[in-house]
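Hey, sorry to bother you again with one of my protein questions. A protein chain has come my way and I'm curious about its shape. I'm sending you its amino acid sequence along with the backbone structure tokens. I owe you a coffee for this, so here goes:
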Amino acid sequence: MLVLILIGLLGGLITAVSPCILPVLPVVFLAGGPGTESETSPGAATGTHPGKGEGRQLPEGGTAASGTLVADPESGTRAADPGETPRHTRNRRPYAVVAGLVLSFSFFTLLGVTLLSALGLPQDILRYIGLALLVLIGFGLIFPPVERLLEKPFARLPQRQVNKGGSAFVLGLGLGLLYVPCAGPVLAAITVAGARGQISGEIVALTISFAVGTAIPLLAFALAGRRVAERVAAFRTRARKLRIGAGVLMVALAFALAFNVTDAIQRALPDYTSAAQKKIEDSDTARQQLSGLYDNSNKELSRCEDGVDQLRSCGRAPAIDGIAKWLNTPGGAPVDLAAQHGKVVLIDFWTYSCINCQRSLPHIEAWNAAYKAYGLEVIGVHSPEFPFEKDAGNVASQAKKLGVTYPVALDNKLTTWDNYRNRFWPAKYLVDANGTVRYFKFGEGQYDQTEDLIRTLLHQANPQVPLPPKTGQKADVLTADRTPETYLSNLRISGYVGTPLVDDKPATYHFPAAIPLNSLSLDGTWTAGYDHFTAGRNARLAFTYRARNVNLVLGGNGPVTVLVNGKVTRTIQVHGTPSLYALVNASTPAQAHLELRVAPGVEGYAFTFG
């Protein structure tokens, strides 16, 4: 049990600093408010609100000298008469907001599905409640009467418990319903147990330790916000304006979350916690502890290791069972895994709010397009992490938005997830033509290796099949000096010439006098990141290549004008999630000079040549 608790604690710590929690950080930071609240001694601390017979505390954001409080109808603060001794109470809003977040997230992750099912309520109602609370708290910061209304349920708490933290606690409850962290094996184990209603002592201990681990970094961030408010004079002298600004930010965040605007920001960030997460949560000890929470069915899958560079025999592929609905199939008909005998099957476990999953989807879609005609069957298993991801309409809408065209099984009861003893979003399983699992990969990355193994299995299934070259390339006899695949990454780029790259911040670049074969250069403003380059003002990219076809994975929104040897050949309208776009489709291979004129905000990921 102690080892399980330690794993949960470390898993929570890693989760709380991952890119997926970035949308809630500004709210947590601003939730602290000013560092202290000034109150008079008992009996004089509450004063009288104009026109009312009841006392009211000094609003957060106000300051007071000693004495009797006098209401200021515009600012909501009150001055004080001399002669009374002020009493300073520590602002506990940071503790209240983090407590509310952790409490609601833990409670509804474990029991939300059971409660919603028992009450017959829609699965996404908790998300809408969270959005409503966030908007309400935002309005409370902008309009003091709304905040007083939110504080009323906490007014009977003893003064030493700082009942004024009530609105912060409500804010935390709302954030907990919207908190969508990157899920590793620990959170996956908690989610699966909650979805099934299998709440054991081990699961409760794991949940509490995970919640505590999550709370520590978030509380540090909230306390940092309080500290800034205490130390920076502008927070004290302009408290009212800052509270209005914070309220506007919360309302804006609610709308951004409602329309998934924050997803684009999260996709743009590298998954910098994945290595630590796998080291802790997917270690041999963690696997033993977490797998012990379930039964021993399909245990032979544990014989294989994640992401190895060779095919192995990992046991028969478990059935795809317990599916609520199928998408992207004729008439919604199910795909029978047993009927795929003779085909190579790629099973991808994903969920639409998972940023790591969103970043992997373009690769899977490209494999589906390239190899479906040669015997590859791609099946997406949508295993929800949160209740709102069970809604078939939500999944269908997001799948279409993310460019998913292959069959998707809605694994709402996580039956298939459990069949495969899965622990990660995303996770890819390769099944050979005889129905045996030969390889699996947890998380992002190793796309080239996975594609190579797909090709190997296709050749094993049909040695005479004339496979096309790897994704984005055309099958023909090309010259040996065809330009290789090139990543737009500040760490993996090859053949770059011109102004030295500046990591992770906008910089101005200039084309050199000449660009050699198999080399590229930048001009204008670009931000060179780990997994993509983002265009800024007057952004251009030049590439001297030898190939018949040129493709580039692009994301964001805006036009990209393509010039070959100085002549405009096409204009591409980039929209939404990163996808593969054809830049050049020539009849014969040739050496040419490519220039791209890229709209600000468009992201480039990787060139492929055929």
User: Anything to note?
Assistant: The longest helix spans residues 201-231. The chain has 17 helices and 17 strands. Residues 325 and 492 are 41 Å apart (CA to CA). The mean pLDDT is 75.
